[in-house]
Write a structure and sequence with these properties.
InterPro entries: TPR-like_helical_dom_sf, TPR_rpt. Pfam families: TPR_8. Keywords: Coiled coil. By secondary structure, the protein is an all-alpha fold. Among the domains are: about 100 residues, Serine Threonine Protein Phosphatase 5, Tetratricopeptide repeat (Alpha Horseshoe), CATH 1.25.40.10; about 240 residues. The chain has 31 helices and no strands.
């Protein structure tokens, strides 16, 4: 055992005792203590060893005592051991104070002290201090046994993937051990690296290829999968191009996995998700590397892709690396065509194109081909098993030839229809704009009509009600004086007491007025109200007929029952109910009409009461009442009675006005909502059309890229660039 390791393991006493003496270490160290009484350096080592023995036997107090009396070069280790004793006892504060008080230049002791402090803070769950001492341990000596593994374990326990990945990359570069790249691979595979910029992995990948060719390919594959379908994917492809561009690929063999990966990336770039400007800087290098990495049929695919690139993008960077003579391979062609067809189907679904117009001809062209119906009818829940279908191509050359020929015709026609569809989309957008503008013009004109109609109906209906009601009030007020005067016949009754003439007259007047209201006035009033309700209903029906015509015409133009302008006829039933209730329960209130006499008439009343039924005084009182009734002006009484009788009917004016306003306001609100909706449709359609015209690449680039893939497939059928 090395001396440093012995100090760490607390086995230093073995350096003080020989092998035989180690059998009885306590006794032998005691004897040596006596023999070395004058040798302070030896005494320090003996005391140190005794402390170790006591520590191992569990006598911590004796161990601490011995270590406290150690002097010389070994003293820092003694105090480190005292800190260990405190740590074992759970006295963390004393342990930390002891550890931090040790001063030493020895790297091993520094590492041990740092790791012990780290352990204490880990138990105290102080992550910040754990990181502080972990960084310190790595700075002191990253090669110290267990330090980097401890760091990796802690980072993983804390789920601190940034630090875990950084550690693996740095240690892989520092040590040249592929095990660190294996850890990195696991982090990538488990999704812990997606926040890293792709270029971060360029240097590690270049270093790894020299260490472990197979692990390098796994790492590239997992990184590609991790970045696929993220906004960093294109950056990763650029990084991958840079990595392979820096390698002497011919120095290595067995690139089949990477050739297949390049094929997959090529399909990703050409599935309609990326524009020409996004992939044009990546494709040339990708195609060159693919061809260099490929072998066998994969080489044929790569060369066909290069030729197709040159044909469709002649102005772009050349990618030709070798002879690209056509090879008739219907198996490969059909396999690539079905992948292309899947990409086009997904793209058209994402673009919400008219699938019926586009795909009905395609179904006629390839629907009879075995397996294709499952691909075309995916929306109906049927699934297409591409692996099984491609396996059939390999097993049946005749089927492969037939499938390739049918798919070639079908896809060419499909791509042509998609170009036509784009032109149709722009025309459709222009037509939609004209439609929305026309409908908005009609909506706004109708809105003005409704606002005018609201005011007109409100005024006309309320005024007709008021006119009808006023006629009844005037009839009542004109009849009241005569009815009051007719009560003079009460004075002819000789049996009437002069004392009660005043009350008798008042009773007779009220009785005859109520009889007039109940038997003559209100029956006529009731019929007038019914006529008014009927006339009002006819007005509403005329308005609704106009609205129905507008609803029908506009909804026919819209293509759905979107406009629903409907007057609230229920309010007519509410009015009828309220008016019936009012006229049935309204009574002329008892009115003390005779109390309204002038002072001289009031004198008559008092005379009657004073002189009673004396014939002379009774005749005088009767005569005076008769003159009063004949000559009296009862218009004031009539107005008071009219106000009371028609009070609720007067209030009803407001209800009519409010109800008419509400029903038209509801119509106007509905129409305003339609205007707002169509305004939004118009604006969004204008923006969409502007986007189509300003950014034609959004639609045409995918079609151009699909065309390149189609030409790649044509090359696999032995068709030259010129012929295709």
């Amino acid at each position: 055992m090395e001396k440093q390791e012995a100090l760490v393991q607390k086995m230093y006493y073995r350096y003080v005792l020989n092998e035989e003496e180690q059998q009885y270490p306590v006794k032998q160290l005691g004897q040596k203590m006596t023999e070395a009484a004058e040798n302070e350096s030896l005494l320090a080592e003996i005391r140190f060893g005794q402390g170790e023995i006591y520590y191992h036997y569990g006598d911590v107090e004796a161990a601490i005592y011995k270590w406290e009396h150690v002097t010389g070069d070994i003293k820092p280790w003694a105090f480190k051991n005292i800190g260990d004793a405190y740590y074992d006892l759970g006295w963390f504060d004393q342990a930390k104070e002891t550890y931090t008080g040790v001063e030493t230049e020895e790297l091993t002791l520094q590492s041990e002290l740092t790791l012990q402090l780290l352990s204490i803070y880990a138990e105290e769950k102080d992550r910040g201090m754990v990181y502080e001492y972990l960084n310190k341990a790595l700075d002191i000596n990253p090669d110290y046994p267990g330090v980097t593994e401890l760091a990796r374990t802690l980072y993983e326990d804390y789920a601190d993937w940034q630090k875990a990945v950084d550690l693996s990359v740095k240690e892989g570069e520092r040590t040249g051990e592929s095990s660190w790249y294996a850890h990195l691979l696991n982090y990538v595979r488990n999704g812990h690296t997606t926040t890293f910029a792709p270029e971060y992995f360029e240097k590690p990948a270049r270093l790894l290829v020299e260490l472990d060719h197979s692990l390098f390919q796994e790492l590239i594959g997992e990184l590609t999968e991790a970045y696929r379908n993220t906004d960093k994917y294109l950056y990763w492809i650029g990084t991958m191009n840079s990595i392979f561009g820096s390698l002497e690929l011919e120095q290595y063999s067995g690139w089949e996995m990477m050739a297949a990966l390049h094929h997959d990336v090529y399909l990703d770039l050409t599935d309609g998700a990326y524009l020409e400007e996004e992939m044009e800087t990546l494709m040339p290098e990708l195609l060159r590397h693919w061809e260099l990495l490929a072998s066998g049929q994969n080489t044929v695919l790569a060369l066909a892709a290069q030729s197709a690139w040159e044909e469709v993008f002649p102005e772009k960077e050349s990618v030709i690396t070798g002879a690209g003579a056509e090879q008739y391979n219907p198996e490969l062609a059909a396999g690539e065509m079905v992948r292309l067809l899947e990409a086009v189907l997904s793209w058209t679904e994402a673009e919400s194109l008219d699938t019926e117009l586009i795909f009905d001809p395609l179904e006629r062209e390839i629907g009879s081909l075995e397996g294709m119906q499952d691909l075309l009818d995916r929306s109906e829940g049927r699934s297409f098993d591409r692996s099984t279908w491609i396996a059939r191509l390999k097993q049946d050359p005749e089927f492969a030839s037939r499938a390739a020929a049918s798919l070639s015709v079908g896809i060419q026609g499909l791509l042509g229809r998609l170009v036509e569809e784009q032109r149709a989309v722009e025309y459709s957008l222009e037509e939609s704009i004209r439609f929305y503008e026309d409908m908005l013009g009609q909506f706004r004109e109708l809105l003005r009509t409704l606002e005018s109609e609201r005011m007109h109906q409100q005024t006309e209906i309320v005024e007709s009600y008021q006119t009808m009601k006023q006629m009844q009030k005037e009839q009542f007020e004109s009849s009241v004086p005569s009815i009051i005067k007719e009560a003079s016949d009460v004075l002819e009754d000789e049996e009437k007491s002069a004392k009660l003439l005043h009350e008798d007259l008042n009773t007779a007047m009220n009785t005859r007025l109520r009889a007039y209201v109940d038997e003559e006035l209100f029956p006529i009033f009731r019929r007038s109200l019914q006529s008014w309700l009927k006339e009002t209903e006819q007005k509403f029906q005329a308005s609704q007929s106009f609205l129905d015509e507008k609803n029908a015409n506009m909804n026919e133009a819209i293509g759905e029952e979107a406009l629903q302008l409907q007057l609230d006829f229920e309010l007519l039933h509410d009015w009828k109910r309220d008016l019936t209730r009012m006229i049935n329960r309204t009574e002329l209130p008892e009115e003390n009409i005779m109390s309204r006499l002038e002072p001289k008439q009031m004198l008559l009343r008092n005379v009657g009461k004073l002189f009673g039924d004396m014939q002379q005084s009774k005749s005088f009182v009767q005569q005076q009442y008769r003159r009063y009734l004949e000559n009296g002006d009862f218009e004031g009484v009539a107005e008071v009675l009219s106000y009371k009788l028609f009070f609720e009917f007067d209030l009803f004016d407001r209800a009519i006005r409010a109800d008419v306003d509400t029903t038209y306001t509801d119509l106007i609100t509905h129409l305003e909502e339609m205007i707002e909706t169509y305004t939004q449709h118009l604006e969004s359609t204008k923006k969409e059309l502007a986007n189509h015209k300003e950014n034609p690449a959004h639609f045409y680039d995918p079609l151009k890229i699909f065309d390149m893939r189609q030409k790649q497939c044509e090359r696999l059928l032995g068709k030259s660039i010129e012929a295709s």
